[in-house]
Amino acid sequence: MKNLFVILISICFLSCSKNYLFKRDQVSISNELKVMVFTDQAVRKQNTVLEREYKIRTPSSVWDSLIVTGAKDLNVIDVSKLPSVSSQLQKMPMEVKKQFEKKVKESEKLVFITDSIHANKIYKILQKYGYPSYYFRTWKSDSLKQGITSVLTHINHQSIVGKKIKRLMLKEYQARRVSDEEMKHYLWDVDGRKDGSFGKNIDVNKWIKNNSSE
Q1: Please, where are the H alpha helices in the chain?
Q2: Concatenated DSSP letters for 58-101?
Q3: Which of 65, 121, 122, 142 has the largest CB neighbor count within 10 A?
Q4: Is the whole-model pTM more than 0.85?
Q5: Residue 173 CB contacts under 8 Å (≥ 6 apart), including other chains
Q6: Which class for 184: exposed (0-12), middle (13-18), buried (19 or more C-beta within 10 A)?
């Protein structure tokens, strides 16, 4: 009984500590998040530019195009019926194909490095401040608010730090520092983006129950 009391007190202290530190440091947190989001989108834009330049259609390029047009439902196009990238490349002249593959390799390396750096930064933020929810945390002003799901859903969830982040995200959700919408979007990516719904149909509590052993 005594041990349970100590555990409860520790949890309460950590939660209050995270809220205090978030309130104290949220200007620097906001700045760091904004830089991460900008960098994340900038490196990925290179892939989109390449795919459009060489007329390669992938689920990501199709969804990105739909988002640009303001589409709210990404399922208007069945991406499962898109031809494979390899089959599209086979129709290219050999020299053009080599150029594309070289540029993609360079771009993917930059994306991998960026995502790895961001994963470690996000982990440290979650550890110290808790999840910086756009909706559930108290920000001093709207100008400081910065959504982070666009970065969070680009990390490698199977990496060591990715698994640590997942455990922290589940704890943060239970601590009510992550909104349902943010958690559904995150879990949608963890599950492999099986559709274009952004996780709208995910039952978060059911997901947690079914994946509690992970």
Answers
A1: 2-53, 59-68, 85-90, 94-129, 149-152, 160-174, 180-190, 204-210
A2: -HHHHHHHHHHTT-S-GGGS-GGGSPPHHHHHHTS-HHHHHHHH
A3: 122
A4: no
A5: 131, 183, 204, 208
A6: buried
